[in-house]
Amino acid sequence: MERTYSPEEVARLCDVTVRTVYDWNKKGLVVGFQEGKNLRFRKSDFHFYETSISLRKAAIEIDVPLKFLIQWVEKKKKLLSAPFASNTKKYFVDKMWLSQSKDQILEEYRSKQKKTNEKDRTGKKLSLFKDSLRLFDSVDIDGSKYRITNLDLLEVIDALGQRKTLANLEWQSAECLNRPYIGYEGRTEFRIPKSNDIYSVEFFVLERLVYYCGIHNVIIYENSNYYLVVCRNCIIPYNEALYAALSQYVIDGYVWVDGIGNIVLGEYEIRLTVPLKYSSMLEIENILKSNLDDSSIPKWIGKKIDEIVEHQKNHPLET
User: Fold this and answer.
1) What DSSP assignment string belongs to the chain?
2) Is the pLDDT of residue 5 over 70?
3) Which of 142, 153, 263, 316 has its CA 20 to 30 Å from the CA of residue 290?
């Protein structure tokens, strides 16, 4: 007679919590059966653990931080075939794949650490929004294009790479969106080279960071050859070129893409308090009953966040 296993035994063998095993069963990822009043599992139901290893164990084995390994796996799109729970720390990876990727993971982690250790926070702290002007905004002066590079000095750079200081500037920039601070901890830092090309990707990235993250979530230091940008965790609408550049310039923290069309600067675990009415709870219940794909709830949450941001924008004095 084939041996069966209790949820506690499955949890121990798979290196997850008992609650995760029940979650798998509820979602149909690992399906058990009732033996009297007890939930039991056959070995064939969870055989994946024999050839797989949890990311928690993998991080210990490779000797890198767990959050770095989670980001690396997501970025390389090497999430495997084994089921996983809602907790991102319970992903599994194939043991053979891990063995083949270990050197590459270590090399990239050490390279990241080297960049972090080389950080230099010296430099002049720049104003981001002043007198209706936004730092790095593209402005039109007498039919010519310029970028604002310093609000305190009112310095601009033209299409030929020439910098000059103005006595005044008749221009009104769009205000920073100040997207909500969503990460529960940490921050992300970027080292962005200085450029004399007002259409360069460097200016594009700087302008987008100031515009979306805003004066409450960004600090920018100007150095002789680069800008050091320090961001609290923030969300930015996805743009392929922007994501590629941010991934290139990051020296500390994390840049990743969520499932609802946003670039996220910061940690994977998100804590955002959103007031929900009874009607909202009914919406969630209907989504759960409809058996839609796993992105349905994140998309609904993203929609609610956008509604709240828009409401706050249109009712700035309302409490």
Assistant:
1) ---EE-HHHHHHHHTS-HHHHHHHHHHTSS--EEETTEEEEEGGGGGGGGTEEEHHHHHHHHTS-HHHHHHHHHHHT---SS---SSGGG-EEEHHHHHHHHHHHHHHHHHHHHHHHT----SEEPPSEETTEETT-EEEETTEEEEEEETTTTEEEETTS-EEE-S-----PPPP------BSS-EEEEEEE--S-TTSHHHHHHHHHHHHH-TTTEEEEE-SSEEEEEEESEEEE--HHHHHHHHHHEEES-EEE-TTSEEEES-SSB-------HHHHHHHHHHHHTT--TTHHHHHHHHHHHHHHHHHHH-TT--
2) yes
3) 263
Residue whose tokens read 């960049």 = 115
- pLDDT, one tens digit per residue, over 212-253 is 988 878 899 999 899 999 987 788 889 999 999 999 999 888
Contact status, residue 267 vs residue 255, Cβ threshold 8 Å: no
Tokens describing residue 219 = 């600090």
